[in-house]
Amino acid sequence: MEELGNIIVIGSGNWGTTLAMIFSKRNKVYLWTINEQEANEINKTREVKFLPGIKLPENIVIEKKFSRQIEKNDIIITAIPSRFIDDLTDEFIAHNTEEFIIVNASKGVEHTTLKTVWETVMAKLPKVQFANLAGPTIARELAEGIPAKAILAARDVALLFQLQQKLENDLLKFEFSRDIKGVELASALKGLIAIAVGMADGLGFKTNIFGIIMTYGVDEFVTIMKFLGVYHKTAYSIAGIGDLITTCISENSRNRKFGKLLGQGYSTENALKEVGMVVEGVSMAKTINKLAKFNLSIPLISCVTRIIFEDVKDAKKEFLNTLNSISG
Known about the structure:
Blueprint: E1 7-10, H1 14-23, E2 29-33, H2 36-45, E3 60-64, E4 75-78, H3 85-94, E5 101-104, E6 109-110, E7 115-116, H4 117-124, E8 129-134, H5 139-143, E9 148-153, H6 157-167, E10 172-177, H7 180-202, H8 207-227, H9 238-249, H10 254-263, H11 268-275, H12 280-291, H13 299-309, H14 315-325
Helix pairs in contact: 3-4, 7-8, 7-9, 7-10, 7-12, 7-13, 8-9, 10-11, 12-13, 13-14
């Protein structure tokens, strides 16, 4: 393989900006925003609103997306809400850009088709070299210089080694996997369990119940992954249980915060407004609703989706009854 080219991060939210900061430790990085106005604002302050108090290094170039031509060996890191990935593939095609390296850092599954980001991208851009980045990586912690470890997943082992050499540094280390779909699915599912832990917190439960939720949550991961024909042992990797535990215990997790607000009596709409950022676990809950007709044994996740989308009169009773009905 030829030497890797530019690093371009698409998405200037807290995760995309954090990744730009991490990878700028050893490389020049281009951070793409949705429009020129946003690029100008960030360039003026060298700060994004989702990471207040953290200044961007000078070797990060902020510009509106598609300000420069993407070359074959450039690394495009996507860190946008997963529901916008399909539109982004259309933008690549419109700009005659169909052959490059993509490292997907977006989390979620398209809820109408159950396609992962990998499947969505490859259906339209078959010449792309695809890798997925996932794992226990809370953006704020990394932005503050606290180290972490993630998984890079790709079918091409040579690509994994090249990406490791280009992207890894003392702040972020990588494990490898070839199970792209399993890593993506585990990463998307974990948000639902984090919502459940937050919900339990908001309802007045404490750590005894949190541990039960995480344990049952991993079991339900495996049930869903087996049903979808995915290598279920990926649920026990750092992309699965590692990411799940981190997201469940972190006060910086938007999924956990959303769940806690629900438990405190907020409506779904008001809880989302209060969080102020995309909560991918809610999108995943819509996907799980589609699986309900297959009678999968996922009582905990089903309970969470009911509380999110239905008018449950006594959420605490519903929650406790569900946990007591589950037998390991």
